[in-house]
């Protein structure tokens, strides 16, 4: 399918021109539910209308653009325009602007298709008081139907989609990791979005005088925690399973140079596509702690199930990459995306392009124009294939 | 030398009776330079005067009680009455009330001595805005002679002692560690007070997405720091030198469950009697870090030299313990005490008694009455020996 790569690349500048205060070291600031997020949605709506696409909005401000008059289950694609504070240029915007280019190219060319295209721009994907991926979760009935600080229960109820609105859903995103870059591969095809399990561990010791207590009489909570942190890293690296495990948050009590740490509390996060793999990994760590005779308390604080992406849609993406001679690889997405929620109601797929050094949620976020365009083309070709098969 | 053990034990209750709001789970609150510290000093002064001891105060509120009219270098002993917030019953108070019992017993018995006794009660020993062991450092000329928030330069100048005011100085203190208790020994005879060297270490990594970044592509600052913390503990335990090493303070950036730690800053504290041992230990850790290919930055932030205690005074204390059939051991003091400053101007010694579980600076601080009295007796006998030799 033919798209206008230059217009697509220019569209980042056009979006940015709405917010002259953004960019540079400050990055981009379009928080969920803000006036700036709404302004960005309005700009996209205008672009769609100018290309002859029929635009609608739901009561919680998701934006839809439909091309085609078949009705029935459509081929959906899109992403979000909100950012974290001081976010990067590409996160959310890339998938949205690529989706814009795909649908307006189809509309301008009056491309004949078997199924309608449904551009979709979600509100509130980033962390926000109503929870990340708010817009897509609301569409798919995964948000409580009650009044909250932003919307009424009636609005949330009205946002739920009619069954079979979508046949497929595709999201295009930067990888937010460096695996593709390091493998020198242009297209990543996630097979699934990992589930997330978080555990709070507490290690206790005796908070005694750091000068007066000989080494032999110490019970140091931080020494215990540090052994655990190493075990987490070593065992995750050695694992034959597809998982990641991180101790990203840790606090020491009383945290004074002159006192042996009496307590350390940390969060272990495990992500895996197969939830049993995540649970089993944590069980293996518990066994290790027992064998190492380290006393601890643990409680599970988060348990988010994983999402499988559709194998046939993966095949369509792969065929598109092969046709364009793009190097590709299959992997899993550790990060969550709107496509996770959408996969509950449609056969869904995700497309990654490389992200330099894996930097994201940061003004330094960078992907080459060549990779951005390659991803756009694979999205366009995949959408066309699904809309005509 | 004969002392009144029951009066000594009762004196804790008499001191406490001045502050009915103190005690129990709240512990004791007589901060440095507070009205409550002054009230405690005034109470001690009254006790001394009632026993016929001549009381003086210097302009920074240290309290002195002299018994004997020889003049010349005296046998000094004492401690402090200020506490940390929510402190224990014994820290400071034990050495002060034992010194009170020794001098009033001598005075009441009109004990004939070759040298005068000089009860000494220091102000501001605990951590305070002018620095710990303030009173003893001021007496010994180790405090800058400038106006500060509490005293004028003239007052600090006037507090400096004339040369040869003291021939000896003895301090009695709870151990604040569990070495004596674990060895089932009643009397500890420190040979020195350890020096303290502190280093700030920074470990850097890449603060990438904890879900999106595969294990193989991670640069995790906390994993590096945890390896270092283990090396500190293992190498200090394995060392043949008398040293302790502690990582008591640590912070993680950005400290979020979903982000791989990008930076960890921690404080390494090393204490040893021989400063070269402390420096060498840190050097050894730096060699280990280089061999482990862990990148880091380090800077020295504290360098307090150690103090030797007088070998002949140690011998006097040992003889006193032997005469009373007390089990004793030599060790070094990791904690600092007023005797450190006093050792600069007098042949000085320190006496420890067991401290249950090593708990100190805490309402749970506890030493048995039998051990308190044993320490009092060793102090009394040592003072008598020094005053009559």
Automatic annotation (TrEMBL), chains A, B:
Q: Name one Pfam family in it.
A: Peptidase_M20
**UniProt cofactor note:** Binds 2 Zn(2+) ions per subunit.
Keyword list (alphabetical) reads: Hydrolase, Metal-binding, Zinc
Tell me one GO molecular function of this protein: hydrolase activity, acting on carbon-nitrogen (but not peptide) bonds, in linear amidines
What does this protein need as cofactor? Zn(2+)
Q: Where does Zn(2+) 1 bind?
A: 80, 91, 173
Q: Which InterPro entries match?
A: Amidase_Cbmase, ArgE/DapE_CS, Bact_exopeptidase_dim_dom, Peptidase_M20, Peptidase_M20_dimer
Indicate yes or no for the key word Ubl conjugation: no
Enumerate the spans annotated as Peptidase M20 dimerisation domain: 193-296
User: Binding positions for Zn(2+) 2?
Assistant: 91, 126, 361
What family is this?
Answer: Belongs to the peptidase M20 family.
- NCBIfam families given in the database record: hydantase
Q: What is this protein called?
A: N-carbamoyl-L-amino-acid hydrolase
**Gene source species:** Loigolactobacillus bifermentans DSM 20003
């Amino acid at each position: 399918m033919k798209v206008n790569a230059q217009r697509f690349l220019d569209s980042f500048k056009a979006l940015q021109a709405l917010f002259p205060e953004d960019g540079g070291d400050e990055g981009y600031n379009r928080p969920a539910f803000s006036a700036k997020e709404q302004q960005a949605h309005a700009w996209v709506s205008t672009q769609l209308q100018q290309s002859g696409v029929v635009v609608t909005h739901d009561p919680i401000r998701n934006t839809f653009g439909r091309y085609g008059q078949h009705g029935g289950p459509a081929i959906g694609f899109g992403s979000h325009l909100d950012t974290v504070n001081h976010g990067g240029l590409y996160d959310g915007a890339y998938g949205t602007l690529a989706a814009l280019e795909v649908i307006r190219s189809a509309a301008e060319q009056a491309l004949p298709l078997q199924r309608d295209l449904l551009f979709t721009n979600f509100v509130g994907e980033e962390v926000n008081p109503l929870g990340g991926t708010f817009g897509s979760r609301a569409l798919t009935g995964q948000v409580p139907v009650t009044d909250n600080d932003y919307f009424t229960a009636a609005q949330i109820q009205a946002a739920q989609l009619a069954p079979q609105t979508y046949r497929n859903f595709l999201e295009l995103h930067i990888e937010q990791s460096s695996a593709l870059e390091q493998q020198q591969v242009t297209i990543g095809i996630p097979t699934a979005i990992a589930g997330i399990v978080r555990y709070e561990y507490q290690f206790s010791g005796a908070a005694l005088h750091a000068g007066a207590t000989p080494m032999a009489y110490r019970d140091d909570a931080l020494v215990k925690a540090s052994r655990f942190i190493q075990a987490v890293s070593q065992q995750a690296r050695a694992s034959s399973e597809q998982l990641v495990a991180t101790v990203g948050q840790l606090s020491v009590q009383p945290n004074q140079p002159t006192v042996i740490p009496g307590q350390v509390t940390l969060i272990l996060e495990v992500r895996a596509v197969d939830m049993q793999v995540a649970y089993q990994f944590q069980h293996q760590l518990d066994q290790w702690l027992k064998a190492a005779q380290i006393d601890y308390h643990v409680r599970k604080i988060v348990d988010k199930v994983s999402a499988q992406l559709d194998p046939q849609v993966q095949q369509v993406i792969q065929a598109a990459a092969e046709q364009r001679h793009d190097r590709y690889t299959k992997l899993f997405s550790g990060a969550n995306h709107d496509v996770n929620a959408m996969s509950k109601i449609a056969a869904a797929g995700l497309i990654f392009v490389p992200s330099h050094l894996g930097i994201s949620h940061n003004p330094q976020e960078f992907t080459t124009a060549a990779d951005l365009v390659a991803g756009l083309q694979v999205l366009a070709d995949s959408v066309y294939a699904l809309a005509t098969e």
